[in-house]
Amino acid sequence: MNKTDLIVQALGAVAPFLQGHLVETAANAFPADAVIVLGRPGHPEAHFRAYARRAERRSDLAWHSNESEPSAPGGEAPLLIAPYVSAQLALECQQRGINFLDTAGNAHIDLPGLYVHVMGRPRPRALRYPAARSALRKASTMRVIFALMADPDLVRQPVRSIAEAAGVALGSASAAIDELKALGFLAGGSRDRRIADRDLLSAEWARQYPISLRDKLRPQRYAPVQADWQQSLRLNGTEAVWGGEMAAAAVTGHLAPVEGCIYSWLERGALLVRHRLRPDPAGSIEVLDAFWRPSADTAASAIAPLLLVYADLVASNDGRNLEVARLLEKRWKDA
Which mean pLDDT values do the consecutive 10-residue runs of the chain (335 residues) have? Predict the structure, then answer.
């Protein structure tokens, strides 16, 4: 389990009484491992420089003496995030003024306007911690994540309902949920299951989509008969939707599409006949199988979910598209 995974899992473990999220990860938080925000409902939030460390003995706390004074531009206080902090070591942290969280849900935060002290929760049973990349390289896991992103209420539903929404086998859905819990992306039990950090999970999904899922959707290029296909090719949103540049142009108005990307629930031959497309490796339209259930929103707009459109733009490695991808990222995070 890498440091970001550890931080996310600890945030999920304390979520019942302390809400938190990542602001910056290691690349922008050096020398800390992340900058995070923590707060309780109705209380002011506090920013922390998070340091992911093991904390098995008193000597493991020595690093804190060098970080005891806020020195970051935002004046964030240092915060230890550990796999597990024993009750004895928790008392040591309390006496030395060391704020901490662990993956069992133990915590000590003592700042003006924010005090939390939870200790004595047992060490979590040994879990299989899949590397984020290996877990997210499974197409079934990617489908489950996408279904959870599309429907905020789905995460609390039975595993069978999640499997049906994602279009995967029950066993695959169950395995995906276990892996996402082990990585800290999901928290809680079957009755109060929740996504611990939606923004981070969405970003990971978009990064892994071209590697783990896209090639399994039978992508193939076609040439349209109509030269003005950007204006003349109309999709029925219950049968097919636009992704990529066409979808981004419709949503933002900041792009002149030169290529089309269609996600289709129709049998491929029927789609080609209906829209007069012929196979051509250099064609301007790419068609892929849709892998999610159509919704009222996509049916009305004939546009794929924004997270998928964003992933398409990033995967293109086209400078024009990357500029628009930043606009879309803000939209789907604010949605």
Answer: 78 83 68 85 83 88 63 70 93 94 93 89 66 73 94 92 94 89 78 82 86 93 93 93 94 90 96 95 95 84 93 84 83 68
What are phi and psi for residue 111, nearest 5 degrees? -135, 160
Residues 6+ apart with CB under 8 A from 206: 307, 310, 311, 314
How far apart CA 1 and CA 128 sit, in angstroms, is: 9
The token pair that represents 323 in the structure block: 């500029």
Residue-wise DSSP of 161-181: HHHHHHT--HHHHHHHHHHHH
What percentage of the chain has pLDDT greater than the value 70?
A: 90
Which run of H or of E encompasses 36? Answer: strand 34-39
**Residue 192, token pair as written in the block:** 């109060």
Eight-state DSSP code of residue 58 = G
C-beta separation of 289 from 218 below 8 A: yes
What's the CA angle centered on 205, arms 158 and 260, to 5 degrees? 115
Please count the other Cβ atoms lying within 10 Å of the Cβ belonging to residue 88: 10
**Mean pLDDT rounded to a whole number for the chain:** 86
**DSSP summary character for residue 122:** P
Cα-based torsion angle of the residue sequence 238, 243, 246, 248 in order, rounded to the nearest 10 degrees: 120
Q: What is the pLDDT of residue 62?
A: 82
Both structure tokens of 333: 């995070």
User: How many Cβ atoms sit within 10 Å of the Cβ of residue 228?
Assistant: 8
Q: What are phi and psi of 160, to 5 degrees?
A: -60, -40
